[in-house]
Write a structure and sequence with these properties.
Length: about 80
Amino acid sequence: MSDVRHVLVLPDRDAAEEVAGELADRFGVLEEPQLVRDALAGEDDAEDAQWLVVIEDARSRLDPAALDAFAAEYEGWLEAPAQG
C-alpha cells in the first residue's frame, strides 16, 4: 500500500470548511485536511475561486467513490489522481 493524496474540489470556502470538518466524523480522517484556494484560470475575482480539500491517505484506506459522493453533497467532486 502506498500513500495516496485525495483532492476534493468544492465551489467555495464555506463548503470546503464544512467538508474538512465532516471528514473525521464520516471517514475517520485523523490528520487535519489542507484547504487550498484555487483561483480559476483567467479569473481575478476572488469569488470565482474553487477550494480544494487535500486529504493525506497514508494507508490507502479511503474509498474514492465514497469521497466523490460526499463531495457531491456540497456540489463538489473528487479530482482524479494525476498519473505520473
